[in-house]
Write a structure and sequence with these properties.
The protein has 8 helices and no strands. The protein has one domain (2-211). The protein is globular. It has 212 residues and is mostly helical. It has helices at 2-27, 36-65, 74-94, 112-130, 133-136, 144-149, 152-174, 187-211.
Length: 212
């Protein structure tokens, strides 16, 4: 039953992010349908990963706070891992001024905002991979390193860096709602909201846990 629920959650999120992305960029926006396989799908992958990551960490904290049995969310965890890997590879393929002109100066170098976004994106990815079962097998479960990596504080740091990655990537577009395609908020803004909510939930649990 647990695995079934995870699959349903993943499918619902993918359905939402797919419809929203296509509606915002291909239907209401001016992005050609030929860009669906890479440019738009990349947004779907990253959007889905952020929502699932925020949901997973928030749900675990809520379950711990209420004294419930904490679900492992193994299927969602693997889904996040492969979504992020796919997002990284596609981003490498299309990271150029033709797709992301706002990221580049006339010299061809990254702007300061793009550099900061990429930096925090890399840090987030490294922290996320350290939480995967693949990495878990390489360290001792009860070692000091494992206690740090799998602590609530480490998860808060991860979500904080994800928030910074999203903020520096898209905050300028958040401030111009008149330019939003069909009045739909940017995906980075919605993703940022999910991460902030997750951060609040996790930080609340962390503070209560520290007092107890």
């Amino acid at each position: 039953m647990e695995k079934y629920n995870e699959k349903i959650t993943i499918l619902i999120v993918i359905l939402f992010t797919t419809i929203y992305s296509i509606l915002r960029y291909n239907i209401l926006g001016n992005v050609e349908w030929s860009q669906l396989p890479l440019y738009v799908s990349n947004k779907i992958f990253s959007f889905t990963a952020v929502i699932l990551l925020s949901y997973m960490f928030s749900a675990k904290s809520i379950q711990k706070k209420k004294g419930l049995i904490v679900q492992q969310f193994s299927i969602i965890g693997y889904a996040i891992f492969f979504l992020i890997i796919t997002h990284i590879f596609i981003s490498i393929l299309i990271l150029n001024p033709n797709y992301f002109s706002k990221f580049f100066q006339d010299s061809g170098h990254f702007t300061i905002l793009a550099s900061l976004s990429m930096f925090f994106g890399v840090i987030s990815t490294v922290l996320l991979f350290s939480l995967t079962p693949f990495f878990r097998k390489t360290i001792q479960e009860k070692s000091d390193l494992a206690k740090i990596i799998y602590s609530q504080f480490s998860k808060i740091f991860l979500m904080f860096f994800v928030a910074l990655h999203l903020f520096f990537m898209g905050y300028k577009g958040w401030l111009t709602p008149e330019k939003w395609n069909g009045g739909l908020p940017p995906i980075t803004l919605i993703s940022f909201a999910f991460v902030i909510i997750s951060l609040i939930i996790n930080f609340s649990y962390f503070k209560n846990h520290e007092k107890s």
